[in-house]
Amino acid sequence: MLAILNNLNDDNNAESKSFNPISEFENLYQLSESNALIIVDATCRIIYSNSSFRKAFKYYHYQKFFDLSSEPDLRNTIQLLANSNYNNMQFDLYYSPEHNLDNNDFNVQAERIIINEVEYIVLVFKSFNEKTKLEAKINDLHNALEYGRVPIIITNDSGIITYSTTSFEKILNKAIEVIYNQSVVDVLSFYLTNEEKKNIELSISRVEVWTKIISSMDESGNTLYEELKLNPVYLEGNENLNFILTANDITNYILKNLFIKKSERRLKSIINNISDLLFIFKRKEDQLLFENANENFCNIFSINKINSFKKSLHSVLDKNLYSQIFTAISKIEVSHDPNVSFNFINSNKRQYSVKISFIYDEIEKESIFIVAMQDITDQMLYEEQLKKAYETEISLNKMKTAFLENMSHEIRTPFNAIVGYSEIIDEYIQSKEYNSLIDLIGSFKDVLTRVLNLFNNIVEVSQIYSGEIEFDLVTLNCNQVIQSIFNNKLSEAQKKNLDLILNLGLEDLNIKIDWIKFEKILESLVDNAIKYTDQGTISISTEEKGNEVQIIISDTGRGIEEQDLKKLIQPFVQAEDAYIRNYEGAGLGLTIAYQLTKLMQGEFFIESKKDNGTKVILSFPKISKIS
Q1: Listed residue (483, 520, 522, 527) closest to 505, CA to CA
Q2: Fold observed for domain 380-463
Q3: Which end of the chain lies in a sparser environment, N or C, as judged by fewer CB atoms within 10 Å?
């Protein structure tokens, strides 16, 4: 029966269909919901009726059926078709309510057929009520799609659009009249590249799913994102093929992802711009795995972040750093303290303050460790400098105290002597003891010379520390200068019964120095040796050692404690306290000698032991030839 219905068409001039035999209709299985159907001959005699017809028209079947009054008259209409050249026709049929039928209104389809070479007419009665129900279902579906704002386009098997919801029309900004019966590829061409057009055409030909994300603007000018998806759909046992194109609003999803990515980029930018070194690792079961790091950390430790991802932390980090981190997290896991810190020094001698924070991911069941490393090298150097400055300040305060103590002694003593000598001179003049006066004046001069030397030394130390001292450098043979110093100091040593020995090296030991200041250095060192040696020997010698010229001044004097050697080159400091010292002097000689030697690019070494004498070594670069 379905075969007959499927062959009904609007081709009125087509040839009549042929069936054989008529008895086959009686054996067909009839669906309860099928339309009422009869087969009649040209005289409107019913030769077959299905159960749906008999149920619909009750006792009016067979000839009584054509006696029912209807509009138009059914008998006349059938006879007109039988006598015409038309193959089929369709018309609406209305029965009078007095017939007491369940349905009074029908749509009738009539078609001529041939059975056993005899022409008959098939009549199919479709109730308007059923048609209304079907239309209602279609309308309900359509309204559901429209009110639900579901964007849907339906195409045939070639991708030609046969249906579209208003929502999709708004997305495309095209009315149904424009897109109806058009290729879906052409309708979407605004959103597709040439390659994507080929892909959707290929998907239609292969009956495959096709997807694409597009963007559009709403009435307020906001960007919307839609995921287009073309799905093939088979109806009635895979015989009829259609495609359904849906548009899924993924704006919130896209915007959320964009926000997350933006946040990730912002966070990444913040982390990478932090001057501290940051990296993250995880403990998963018994393994420590590298997770992430900022650029500063990767640059300092030469780590490729991508290649190191999920690798063993031991294979990624510096061995010393890994060892300290492993020890630190062991403490964390034992003490359950979420934070631990330690200091680390890398191979470049940079010092870092390392802080490790710990959190536990309940979902992934893994421990996450965040390591922050702050470069504190400059801070430590600054603190060290502050410490040294503090120590220097303390030392300067001590020097000031020593200066006041020394000056009070060194100035008061000679000036007391001057006052005393002045009174004695006055008495000698009054008593006319001129011979005694001459001897006294010599002592008076010595005191004045001592005071003058003191003030000269104070001025020179001031110039050295203020950077105002100037040098007139010349190249000379140091042996000549040392010979002159030896000659001048020989008598002074002999007065103390000391042996002053001179042992010069090569004849020409040339160095570049300020002649006057070099003499002052030597005189100061020899004076000290004579002053602090009560018996024994004082030796002055020179020698060539590599590219250096060394001048050695040694004595067998009382010496000093090794821990006091550094004090000797500080101004106003003597080996003994000012109140108990046995020798005069402001303690400036060694300071000046040391500073002048260093300023003339020389080296100053001093060796001494208590009661075992002192040795001072001056070293200057050797000049091969006097220019």
Answers
A1: 483
A2: Helix Hairpins (1.10.287)
A3: C
DSSP 27: G
Pick the CATH number of 149-254 from 3.30.70.1450, 3.30.450.20, 3.40.50.970, 2.60.120.10: 3.30.450.20
First to last CA, the chain: 133
Residue 14, pLDDT score: 45
DSSP assignment of 281-346: EEEETTEEEEEEE-HHHHHHHT--HHHHTTSBHHHHS-HHHHHHHHHHHHHHHHH--SEEEEEEE-
Classify 427 in phi/psi space as left (phi over 0), alpha (psi -120 to 50) or beta: alpha
Mean pLDDT of all residues in 91-106: 82
8 Å CB contact between 37 and 53 = yes
The pairing of strands 499-503 and 537-545 is parallel
Is the Cβ–Cβ distance between 109 and 116 less than 8 Å? no
- Tokens 């070639």 correspond to 158
Centre a 10 Å sphere on the Cβ of residue 536 and count the other Cβ atoms it contains: 12
- Domain residue ranges of the chain, discontinuous segments joined by +: 2-127, 149-254, 274-375, 380-463, 470-621
CA atoms of 371 and 357, how far apart (whole Å): 7
Tokens 């006696």 belong to 67
Say how far apart CA 272 and CA 490 lie, in whole Å: 75
Closest of 300, 338, 298, 345 to residue 321, by C-alpha? 345
Burial of 400 (0-12, 13-18, 19+ CB in 10 A): exposed
Q: What mean pLDDT is predicted for residues 457-486?
A: 81
Residue 135 scores a pLDDT above 80: no
Fill in the DSSP letter of residue 623.
B
Q: Best-predicted range by mean pLDDT among 3-12, 217-226, 565-574?
A: 217-226
Architecture of domain 2-127: 2-Layer Sandwich (3.30)
Amino acid at 64: K
pTM higher than 0.70, yes or no?
no
Q: Is the pLDDT at 8 greater than 60, yes or no?
A: no
pLDDT greater than 90 at residue 506 = no
For residue 186, is pLDDT > 80?
A: yes
What residue has token string 């000036």? 415
Handedness of CA 104, 110, 114, 120 (dihedral sign): positive
CATH number of 274-375: 3.30.450.20
